[in-house]
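Incident log, structure service

09:12 report received: a user says their structure output differs between two submissions of the same chain.
09:20 pulled the input from the user's history:
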Amino acid sequence: MTNKKNNLNTLCIHGANKHTEINEHVYPIFQSSTFLFKDVAEGAARFAGTDKGYKYTRLGNPNYDILAKRLTILEEGEFAHIYPTGMAAISTPLEHFLSANDHLIADNMLYGCTDSLLRNIISRFGIEISFIDLANEEEFKKNLKNNTKAIILETPTNPTMKEIDIQSISDIAHNFNEEIKVMVDNTFATPIYQRPIELGADISIHSCTKYINGHGDVVAGAAIFNKKISEKINHTQGDLGTTTSPFDCWLMLRGLKTLPLRMERHTENAKKITEFLKNHPQIDYVKYPGFSGMLCFELKKGVEAGKTLLNNVRLCGLAVSLGNVDTLIQHPASMTHAAVPKEHREKIGLTDGLVRLSVGIEDVDDIIEDLEQALRKI
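09:34 re-ran on a clean worker, output below:
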C-alpha cells in the first residue's frame, strides 16, 4: 500500500493489513498474555532480539503491531508505540529523553493533566521546565538553552484552541540543536487534518481515547516517532509497563476504519454550531480553528450562566473526554483543568466561564436545538 496523503480513506482501512494462515477477513484478537517457544534456544533468541517472534504481550503482540504500523503510515513516521492511556503516551517519552539537569520547554496552554505531570512529577527529578507561549516565536528563541532537550506543545490547544506553527517551532529548535525532541499532541487535529512529523516534529502524540477510537469505549494513547528517534525507547516502554491490551488495540483498529468519515462529519457539524453560537445573544465569543469537532465559547453572564447551560443540556453529554461520535460538553476550569493553578489559568486566558464543546456526528439540528433550549434557561 503506497503512502499517499490522498489515500487516507483507504489507509485507515487497509494500511498495514495482514492475515493469519486461515486468511480471515477481519484480523483476530490475540488475547494471550504470553507466547510459547518451541525450545530454549528460540526463547533465548527472542529475548536477545535475534528472533523477532513474540514472547510476552507487555513486550509485543500482533494486535499492537498492526495498530502501531497503521498509525505510523497515517502520521508519516518511522515507528509507533501504543500506550494504555494518553498520559502514558506523553510521560513515557519524556521519561526516556529527559534526565536531571536537562531543560524542557512547554507551551503555557496544555491539557490539565499534562500540565500537572510537568509541574508535580517531571519537575521533581531535577528537570528545569519553562512554560512559555510557543505562539510567540521570539519568546521561544529567548528560552532555548544549551541543555534544552525537548519541546512539548498542543495545537490546537486544549481547551482554548490556540494554534501554534509546528514547522516554525521545529525549524527553530533543530537549527539551535538538532538533538532537541519536538513533541506535538495531535489529538484534536488527528492525522486527517495535521501530520506533525511531516512538518518537522519528532514525535506526534495522541490520546487514542478520543478521535482515533472515536466510540468512547477505549482508554489508550499513541506516540509516533520520526526516524531520528532511537528504538532504545522500546525498552523504556517495556520496563515501565506502559503497553496497552490486545483487545483495546483491536477496538482502535476498528475505530480507525471510519476516522476520515467521522472527521468530515465532526467538522461539518462544528462549523454550523460555531455560526449558531456566534450569533446567539448569550455568547460573548467562540473559538473554532475551522477543522475537527472541538470548539470553546464564553457566555456573557459568566460562570453561573455556564453552570445553568451545562445543567440543562439533554442531548449533549455533560462529561470530560472528547472526539466521540456523541456530543460532549464540559467546564474546563472545574473539570479537565482543575489541577492548573487559577492564577496560571487566568494568565493564559482559560477563564472560569469558558465552556468546551466536543461536537459529535448526530444530526446537527438536534445538537443546535439542545443548546438553544439550554441557553434559554439562562
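09:41 both user submissions now match this output. Likely a transient worker issue. Closing.
09:42 reviewer note: The mean pLDDT is 95. The first strand starts at residue 79 and ends at 83.
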